Structure prediction request, 178 residues.
Amino acid sequence: GAVGHVAAQLARLYGCRVIGSAGSAAKVLFLQEDCGIDSAFNYKVGSILDQLKSAAPDGIDVYFDNVAGATLEAALSALRVHGRIIACGGISAYNDQKPRPGPSNLFYITTKRLTMKGLIVTDWLGRQAEFQHEVGGYLRAGTLKSRETVVNGIEQAVSAFIGLFDGTNVGKMVVKLA
Prediction:
């Protein structure tokens, strides 16, 4: 998505090995070829945990979570001791009528001594200028790729919004007004 593909690229720029997941073969290709992600898999094809373990047989150190649900449960299993989770979203449950039960393996937080922290962008507004300077430089240099799905006309706004939950967009969903 819009946040995940940028976060993944920034992690790569800081020297991390990055594994991404996406909901189609085309999006996996985008992550690997355009974004330079080390490894990516389609979470709709096969077990998320099996694919994650295949990409990182020794486990993962950090999980950036925009999805929650089954993806978070898989990450909890794959995290190494002292691993970290940055919880930024939970799109898998945004449209649920009632809250789902949490992952069945939350005890890993204790046994692996994991850290889980929520992230809301407004907590970091004091560093916005610094962020814009750094990330703007990456964008101008072509080191950071950004993708948008653009639909034309306000009459498309509802279907564009629903498309966010269906995964029809690649990157940021934008409604162009005129």
About this structure: The CA atoms of residues 81 and 112 lie 4 Å apart. The helical segments are 2-13, 25-34, 48-55, 69-78, 108-111, 128-141, 157-166. The chain has a mean pLDDT of 91.
